[in-house]
């Protein structure tokens, strides 16, 4: 297997859904299946926060959700837990600034997808140098889904990273809704990453579809 090509990565980032059991008011498998029906392009298993599953229960949920992704051709990324990603032979891993050295994670996972969080230019440059396939930038807007989230920076941080030469695939995260997708794509993001906009929606399928439509429309507008 070779490293993912940048253009394929950009497409997979378009509607990047993140979820764990703590984000779900109904069975996670149902929410994921509905989100896939609505058009998500990538999935991250993020089993984190108060009440999160651990050990065997975490592994079993991950396996169940990975199976659903596999049935529909949606790449399955594991948040934080490199060992779990390897045990499941997941498609990739996402790590943040407090999750260890991205270079070492790259060595451990070989050609699997590596996503790294960055909050400023220095972190973004280091992620590129470490071999990240994409960068997650946030929070763009205020979020209730991450207990230790930093202060929201607005879409200007994406514009700044692009202006300073960060050219690799980039996804915006934190408080993203169909209503603000336009400004993050216009700023230079390849896609949007969401928890609550899909997981807490009355219909995850409708929410995912609205996000996908907003991304496609915004990308068309950005080409003009
Ligand atoms: C796509 C994406 N971007 C950013 C993050 C946040 O990662 P991190 O800073 O490590 O925080 P936690 O998610 O681990 O709490 C992400 N998970 N995904
Ligand atoms: C997992 C995560 N990481 C963030 C960061 O800023 O790095 S914000 C966030 C939570 C995103 O959830 P929602 O779409 O509900 O705002
Ligand atoms: Mg992390």
Features:
224 residues; alpha/beta; TIM Barrel; eight-stranded parallel β-barrel; 8 strands; binds ligand LCLJCK34; binds the ligand Cc1nc(C(=O)O)sc1CCOP(=O)(O)O; binds magnesium ion; EC 2.5.1.3
Quick recap:
The chain has about 220 residues and is α/β, with parallel strands linked by helices. About 45% of the residues lie in helices and about 15% in strands.
Counting DSSP E segments of at least 2 residues, the number of strands comes to 8
Question: Topology as H/E string?
Answer: HEHEHEHEHEHEHEHEHH
Structural class: alpha/beta
- Return residue spans where pLDDT drops below 50 for at least 5 consecutive residues: none
**CATH topology description:** TIM Barrel
Separation, N- and C-terminal Cα atoms? 36 Å
Largest sheet: 8 strands, parallel, barrel
Over all CA atoms, what is the radius of gyration? 16 Å
CATH homologous superfamily? Aldolase class I
CATH class: Alpha Beta
Number of helices: 10
Family: Belongs to the thiamine-phosphate synthase family.
Binding site for 4-amino-2-methyl-5-(diphosphooxymethyl)pyrimidine: 44-48, 79, 117, 146
Cofactor: Mg(2+)
Function: Condenses 4-methyl-5-(beta-hydroxyethyl)thiazole monophosphate (THZ-P) and 2-methyl-4-amino-5-hydroxymethyl pyrimidine pyrophosphate (HMP-PP) to form thiamine monophosphate (TMP).
Give a structural overview.
Condenses 4-methyl-5-(beta-hydroxyethyl)thiazole monophosphate (THZ-P) and 2-methyl-4-amino-5-hydroxymethyl pyrimidine pyrophosphate (HMP-PP) to form thiamine monophosphate (TMP). Belongs to the thiamine-phosphate synthase family. Its EC number is 2.5.1.3. Residues 15-198 form the Thiamine phosphate synthase/TenI domain. This is Thiamine-phosphate synthase. An eight-stranded parallel beta barrel has the order 1-2-3-4-5-6-7-8, surrounded by eight helices. It has ten helices and eight strands. Strand 5, helix 6 and strand 6 (134-137) form a beta-alpha-beta unit. The model has no long low-confidence stretch (mean pLDDT 97). It has a single domain (12-223), classed as Aldolase class I (TIM Barrel, Alpha-Beta Barrel). It has helices at residues 6-12, 28-38, 55-72, 82-88, 102-109, 121-130, 156-163, 181-187, 196-199, 204-223, and strands spanning 15-19, 42-45, 76-79, 92-95, 113-118, 134-137, 170-173, 191-194. It has 224 residues and is α/β, with parallel strands linked by helices. Helix 2 (28-38) packs parallel to helix 3 (55-72), helix 2 (28-38) runs parallel beside helix 10 and helix 8 runs parallel beside helix 10 (204-223). It is globular and about 45 Å long. Helix content is 45%, strand content 16%. Magnesium ion (MG) binds at residues 79-80, 95-96, 99.
């Amino acid at each position: 297997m070779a490293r993912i090509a940048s253009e394929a990565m950009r497409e997979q980032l378009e509607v990047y859904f993140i979820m764990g059991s703590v984000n779900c008011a109904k069975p996670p498998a149902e929410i994921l299946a509905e989100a896939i029906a609505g058009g998500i392009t990538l999935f991250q298993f993020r089993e984190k926060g108060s009440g999160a599953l651990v050990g065997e229960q975490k592994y079993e949920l991950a396996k169940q959700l990975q199976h659903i992704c596999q049935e529909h051709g949606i790449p399955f990324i594991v948040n934080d837990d490199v060992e779990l990603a390897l045990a499941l032979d997941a498609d990739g891993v996402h790590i943040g600034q407090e999750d260890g050295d991205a270079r070492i994670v790259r060595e451990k996972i070989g050609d699997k997808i590596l996503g790294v969080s960055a909050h400023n230019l220095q972190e973004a440059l280091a992620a590129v140098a470490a071999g990240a396939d994409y960068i997650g930038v946030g929070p763009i807007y205020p979020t209730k889904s991450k207990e230790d989230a930093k202060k929201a920076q607005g879409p200007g941080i994406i514009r700044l990273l692009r202006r300073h030469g960060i050219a690799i695939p980039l996804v915006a995260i934190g408080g993203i809704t169909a209503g603000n997708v336009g400004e993050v794509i216009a700023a230079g993001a390849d896609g949007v990453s969401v928890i609550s906009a899909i997981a807490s929606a009355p219909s995850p399928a409708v929410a995912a579809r609205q996000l996908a439509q907003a991304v496609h429309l915004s990308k068309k507008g950005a080409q003009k």
